[in-house]
Amino acid sequence: MPAAKDPNAAEESPSLGLPAPDGAGPSGGDDHKASDGLSKAQKKRQKKKQAAARKNAGGSSVPADGEGLEDEGKVTDNDAAPSEVKEGKDGDMLKKKKKKRKPKTSQTCTQTDPPTIPVKDLFVDGKFPEGEWQSYGADNVWREKSDEMQRRVELQEDMINDARQAAEVHRQVRQYMQGYIKPGMTMVHICETLEDMVRKLIAENGLDAGIAFPTGCSLNHVAAHWTPNTGDKTVIEYDDVMKLDFGTHVNGRIIDCAYTHTFNPMFDPLLEAVREATNTGIRETGIDVRLCDVGAAIQEVMESHEVEIRGKTYQVRCVRNLNGHSVAHYLVHGANSVPIVKGGEATRMEEGEFYAIETFGTTGRGRVVDDLECSHYLKNGAMGYVPLRMPRAKQLLHTINTHFGTLGFCRRYLDRLGETKYLMALRNLCDSGIIDACPPLCDTKGSYVAQFEHTVYLHPTKKEVLSRGDDY
Ligand SMILES: [Co+2]
């Protein structure tokens, strides 16, 4: 989810804080129960099958069919000594032993296909996979060898483990969606499939774990902030370019990560340009690095690409008023913007910050404006108490505070909570400055915009590309 620099202003202006998330929802209770039920059933079955599984130790994962529950027996037998011994070396044996009392399941079991098992039930030692590690530049390599820095890394282990869990959910969901999305599907179906899967895999629980912001699925010249409102009939087509930008969080540690989905290979060079630009931004990112230098490096790579689409050649352009951004606790848009063109701010990145590094390449003019019906909303964190006269607005604000807090939400998320006829109240909340509307951001009609995005953490020693996967 990008931070937008005043899309409709004549030129540059400060970025607006984008909210993002959405919590779980009571009315979504069904999903929730279903996932709990699943994991209980899973555990039962697993016990039964444990003997068999032992014989099979190291058994490879096999996708289960349909419900996939049958698959649980295919686990690695891990409640035995070897893993205990390994963990002893980490020095946090005590904690682990505590967690391990009477292992309910073995350490790894395999995900079903389609995915249904909460990721936390797949990693029963409670440790989620690390992202991709990258070293900082020469000035900062001393950090990797410093015991003091290493100690600081260890102090953040629990916090970063939450982010890793959110990242693992993101990877599993998007990789499933990559094989699932087909031309002819409605955008509503795509989003609901994805969102239901996130809710299950993250074991959605109020504001403790869930979706971090609306599922962006902006098409073609629409760069960002579009998701269907209820009743929307838009269908994805073979020649569409869809930016699938969704967020997950555990305890407010947000993963903001996106890729571009296409069917027609004629768009491959455009996607390649943007993927390369994003990876350049990630490589440049680091402690003490100036934000403007990241932007300049991104632009250089992006705009070195030419693409041919339907016989016409375009130089790929960066969308100059869209930005990456820092990510704060429960806030998808932190204080800093990461430009994707030269000429940005000289502010330096700091140890302990999360950054969403995202770039947008386009065949259009390289500047977005607000257009189309709004779906995305976000609480304005800077706003103090505002007295509200309209009772319906008060009530709606209560729902928003309860389920989303400072996370982003969309109209569909209100609908599923049972809210109806809220548009007037929502308008009132926007007019009073409590809620920001984040309308779709569009380049010129007929153009194509692509996006890739990852969330990176600046550890004291190295950076970790938390959301990196085999796919991108
Ligand atoms: Co973002």
TrEMBL record:
Its EC number is 3.4.11.18. Residues 1-120 are annotated as: Disordered. Binds 2 divalent metal cations per subunit. Has a high-affinity and a low affinity metal-binding site. The true nature of the physiological cofactor is under debate. The enzyme is active with cobalt, zinc, manganese or divalent iron ions. Most likely, methionine aminopeptidases function as mononuclear Fe(2+)-metalloproteases under physiological conditions, and the catalytically relevant metal-binding site has been assigned to the histidine-containing high-affinity site. It comes from the Eukaryota. A divalent metal cation 2 binds at residues 256, 325, 358, 453. One of its GO terms (biological process) is proteolysis. Residues 41-52, 95-104 have a biased composition (Basic residues). Residues 84-94 have a biased composition (Basic and acidic residues). One of its GO terms (molecular function) is metal ion binding. Residues 105-114 have a biased composition (Polar residues). It catalyses: Release of N-terminal amino acids, preferentially methionine, from peptides and arylamides. Cotranslationally removes the N-terminal methionine from nascent proteins. The N-terminal methionine is often cleaved when the second residue in the primary sequence is small and uncharged (Met-Ala-, Cys, Gly, Pro, Ser, Thr, or Val). This is Methionine aminopeptidase 2. It comes from Ostreobium quekettii. The lineage of its organism: Eukaryota, Viridiplantae, Chlorophyta, core chlorophytes, Ulvophyceae.
